Amino acid sequence: MRKPPSPRWAMMLSPTPGTSWSLTSRPASLSLSTRKSSISHSRPEVVWGRMISRAISAKSHPMVTTFYRRWSKLERMEFAKYLIEPRLFAGLPPDWRWVFGREAPLVVEIGFGNGEFLAEEAANHPEFDYVGFELSLTCIEKAGRKFHAAGLGNVRVVRLDGRFGLRELFADESVREVIVNFPCPWPKARHAERRLVNEGFARTLAAVLEPGGRFELTTDALFFAEEARDKLAATGCFEVQGPHEIQGGSRTRYERKWRSQGRTIYRLVAEKGAPAKIERIVEGRMPHARIKGELSPEDVLRAVGLKEVWPRGAFVVKEGFVAPDRDEVLLRAFAADGEFRQQFFISVSQDRKGWIVQLDGATVPFRTPAVKRAVFAVAEHLQKERGA
Asked: How far apart are CA 33 and CA 21, in angstroms?
């Protein structure tokens, strides 16, 4: 776990007798309470191991600038050893032999929920290594406790969108099987683009699965399974079976729930017959640029509102924060590469050689084309402001 950066952005809150502070489970709320009164700041910004607030006066609320106690609690949790952070890897896709300490066939589950199915599969098949994708930190914690209780060493989890993760974290023909149990079918037509199995996902499967590798989808939504069948068949890379109604035991909590409500469960299986080529977008180099001439924090803040949109991506600079000693400005930015979206901070800081524009080390986004373009566009904007 990386140590939080030095809290240079505001004075550290020094508690007095009878004073305590806390962070809620959703880090969009910060409170400082005393025996006599309670005050709050509704939307602090979280930057890795620190919190910074929007510009406030000296008479405004105190701020918590670190949450060491929160991280130490996380480190004590059983799931910590199962959770990996691919943003910190030197290069992608990673060498999964290094991650697991051995060479074994890889099985991926997208959206593992509370980890019930993933834990059972990993326990029953110790000859395989399992990688699960999930966005909910609560689900990851619950799953990690199951893995720990079972003493599993052949499973890892990633807090990441599964479509993006499958494409960027696995080399061609490196995965034995991909399993998806009861993903949200997004039944409304206006939400169709959110459905898991689209053209891009089907081609990703055809690229990363081994020859003869399998994709298995279980759902209670027949229309969703039929649409997935059509998307997979359209690639010309799969032999697709189903969707078929399945009977028998229930493998997951959702399957038990839907069966108890009388719903029909369907399964679709696709076996890879031909490969496909895909474009991966994460690159290893850290973007940075130097600015010729002098800058002031006010010059940098004029980059707020800068945005670009192109067919496959976009970025916008949302707001800026100035360090008390005025030698650094953080710009909060949003970037989209197709369906994958990230928020991050761009640091514009002064050193002995002048001013440098680079990604702030606290947020660690994936270095996608949109993220890199945001960094270089800010640098170009600032250089133009200088008239150099």
From this structure: 6
User: To which H or E segment does residue 126 belong?
Assistant: none
Task: For residues 96 and 157, give the distance between their C-alpha atoms in angstroms, rounded to a whole number.
Answer: 12
Is 14 a member of any domain?
no
Q: Which long-range contacts (CB under 8 A, 24 or more apart) does 228-236 make?
A: 228/196, 228/197, 228/268, 229/268, 229/270, 231/197, 231/198, 231/199, 231/201, 231/202, 232/197, 232/202, 232/205, 232/270, 234/199, 234/202, 235/199, 235/202, 235/203, 235/206, 235/276, 236/274
Across the strands, what pairs with 348? 329, 357
List residues bridging with 20 in a β-sheet: 33
Query: Burial, 108: exposed, middle or buried (Cβ in 10 Å; 0-12, 13-18, 19+)?
Result: buried
| Closest to 123 (Cα-Cα) out of 148, 157, 141 | 148
| pLDDT of 254 strictly over 80 | no
Query: Of the candidates 54, 70, 86, which is a domain's last residue?
Result: 70
pLDDT digits (tens, 9 = 90+) for 288-321: 899 888 889 999 999 999 999 999 899 999 999 9
Residue type (1 letter), 360:
D
pLDDT confidence bin for 158, thresholds 50/70/90: very high
Confidence bin at 29 (pLDDT 50/70/90): very low
Which structural domain, as residue segments, surrounds residue 35? 20-70
Residue 5 inside a domain? The answer is: no
33 vs 158, residue with greater confidence:
158
Pair (107, 219) in one structural domain: yes
Number of structural domains (the chain) is: 3
Same domain for 297 and 265?
Answer: no
295 in a domain, yes or no?
Answer: yes
Q: Is omega for the bond preceding 369 within 30 degrees of 0, making it cis?
A: no
Q: Say what the alpha-carbon torsion angle 149, 154, 160, 165 is, to the nearest 10 degrees.
A: -170
Both 308 and 191 in a single domain? no
Amino acid found at 252: T
Q: How confident is the model at residue 261 (pLDDT cuts 50, 70, 90)?
A: confident
Residue 8 forms part of a structural domain: no
- CA gap 268, 245 in Å, rounded: 9
One domain for residues 62 and 133: no
Give pLDDT, residue 65.
Answer: 38
CB 160 within 8 A of CB 365: no
